[in-house]
Amino acid sequence: MADLRDYYLILQVAPQADLAIIKAAYYTQLKIMKKHPDLGGSHEEALLLNEAYEVLSDAVKRREYDKKYSGGKSPQKTYHHSGKEQRKAVRLSFYEVFKLRKSYAGWVKAQFRDISLLGACLRSQEKFRTGETLELDVSQSPMVRATAKVRWVRVLPQRFGAPLYEGGVEFQKINAVSFREYLKIKGLENLL
Fold first, then answer.
1. Percent of the chain scored above 90 by pLDDT?
2. In sequence order, which residues have a C-beta less than 8 Å from that of residue 112 and are 6 or more positions away?
């Protein structure tokens, strides 16, 4: 449907994102990114964020939206080119759920926010620290696993529940061939 708004893109979350990530993205947009009218944002933008959150945070409304948005198929994963880059490598916005773990811990869900050939920005409810090494289970087909060093972290406080942790990581070990194949499958040829 061409006239239906992409609520996942508005909140900058993956279609597979769970309620905690949706809630964190909503509050981050309104408060930290100051899109709420009381903090200097526009009334129209806040209304759009509220509309997206109202639909995606309600299981029934979200199912109906997903059916309309995708024409009955599973929703497409959302990503877009963020424009001109000023970094070491081109980085694209990329909202994809994956798993991560710290050494000697279990796997937990996380979500990419953007990605490049050298690293990524990610969010998780699992606490991690600057300088720490994480294992990433990015994809099963093709098999893409990586180790990454955390370069920076910020805590995204939540109104209810545990905070989210957002951080930038630099890939330390990754199978370049599988990773490039994965990027092609996801439509991120611009990174190659």
1. 36
2. 14, 94, 95, 96, 98, 120, 121, 122
